């Protein structure tokens, strides 16, 4: 009888231990949060966020989210972030300064394979790396940030505003032949072509215009200038982006377009080439999509 009692008690103890172990494992999974668009949503709202890129500062500002640290930059940023601790350039983060602010979450652009990812892991700082290059990237990242910081309503309002602008601009293009567009990436001494995978390239696709560069197998956001393609396509509109000094790039464009080759291109003949504002059309992506789409709509179809 005693043996049977010991056996029963043994089973009860083992069951209790197994149950406790299972509960602990479940708790650990909960702490890790859940996934959204391939990103991990923390289980609780971060209270001390450090940010690695300006585009993410801009997005968090739109969601009314505070931070403890920001990247060093010459670009214009919101007044609310100017006095926050600077942690260096995006590709050269000052880890000592980062540790000093004791962040509970680090946000950056890029991918989890970046060198900084391993460094943050060693410091036990939770981090996520967002894609912000294209139209879809920006919208998905904004919705993700809305989930992370319990700002779902603000994120939804942002997305709706963008989609409303798209609908308005596309309505102006209804039943019209799609415009052929060349997007030039201008450097002080050279020019490249933006692909569909670039920020501006993704915007013109959303609006229903045609990028003259049609090889979507190319993963790069820019490719070398191809004058034969430009001649054969004869674009209706040329969009000009600046990389480096905007004034030097503008001078380069003006000089280049005086050549016999460019004078035969419809977009140049009809003076339908436009320099894009780098504050709105930033090369690495920009959350000012509504303004960007409105601008392109005016250039393309004269929509107001």
Automatic annotation (TrEMBL):
Q: Which UniProt keywords apply?
A: Signal
Q: Show the InterPro entries listed in the entry.
A: ABC_Transporter_SBP, ABC_transptr_periplasmic_BD
Example of a GO biological process term: cellular response to iron ion
Matching entries from PROSITE patterns are given as: FE_B12_PBP (PS50983)
This protein's superkingdom? Bacteria
Leader peptide range in chain numbering: 1-20
Q: Which residues form the Fe/B12 periplasmic-binding domain?
A: 48-304
UniProt keyword annotation of Cell inner membrane present: no
What's the protein here called?
A: Fe/B12 periplasmic-binding domain-containing protein
Organism this protein belongs to:
Treponema denticola H1-T
